[in-house]
Write a structure and sequence with these properties.
The protein has about 210 residues and is of the alpha/beta class. It folds into 2 domains: about 140 residues, no CATH class; about 55 residues. A 5-stranded mixed beta sheet has the order 1-5-4-3-2. Helix 4 crosses helix 5. It is globular, with a radius of gyration of 19 Å.
């Protein structure tokens, strides 16, 4: 699925610039994370420790979105920073160009509604909302976050990144690190899915325990 994150207004109304960014600057260099007095109703926004539970986000979006937007339910992916909502549009006659045109039309026709829904979800779950659509194998993410993730690496680990840079695979260490993460994700999908499922079960059991 291709990406297009040039129109930041689609990420939502109140919190669409830099929302969820944890580095010194938000997306496209605007803002510095959640604004004080922002849509989440807390000075400085939500902290990770008290981030609202978003385990029911998929069900909320399934009930909140208009019935005629997607064929079937939306795909909702949640992490600590972002909720990405992607749906399958009705098929269109023609090839990839026709599909691209229909996705673009849907994007423009639904912009106002999506911004309003994103505002509601951001206030409810404390996360940026991003959107995408697809028709068959043709898809596009309209808006999405690029959140900085800082880490300390030893020399042997830095050498891995430098090798990728020297070989032209990446232009910088940060791009090489992103490439490594993507590669691991592609080759460990089943293991990561099992790990997330186990973590969800632990969280369920913890929630069912007595309050201290």
């Amino acid at each position: 699925m291709s990406t297009d994150d040039t129109n930041t207004e689609e990420a939502g109304g109140q919190g669409r610039r830099g929302m969820g960014g944890r580095g010194p600057r938000g997306r496209h260099g605007h803002g510095s994370g959640p604004r004080r007095g922002g849509p989440f109703g807390r000075p400085g926004g939500w902290q990770q420790a008290d981030l609202p539970d978003a385990s029911g986000a998929a069900e909320w979006f399934a009930g909140r979105l208009p019935d005629d937007w997607f064929v079937g339910g939306p795909e909702v992916v949640v992490d600590r920073d972002e909720i990405t909502v992607t749906g399958e549009l009705a098929p269109v006659d023609g090839g990839e160009e026709a599909a691209e045109g229909r996705i673009t039309r849907w994007r423009e026709d639904t912009r106002g509604q999506r911004m309003a829904i994103a505002d509601e979800a951001q206030s409810r779950y404390g996360r940026q909302v991003s959107w995408g659509a697809r028709i068959g194998d043709t898809g596009r993410l309209f808006t999405h976050l690029a959140v900085p993730a800082m880490t300390r690496l030893r020399q042997s680990e830095r050498q891995v990144l430098d090798t990728l840079v020297d070989a032209g695979v990446a232009r910088s260490r940060s791009e090489a690190l992103a490439w490594c993460v993507k590669l691991v994700g592609e080759h460990t999908d089943t293991w990561l899915a099992d790990l997330r499922e186990a973590m969800s079960e632990v969280e369920r059991l913890r929630s069912a325990g007595p309050d201290l």
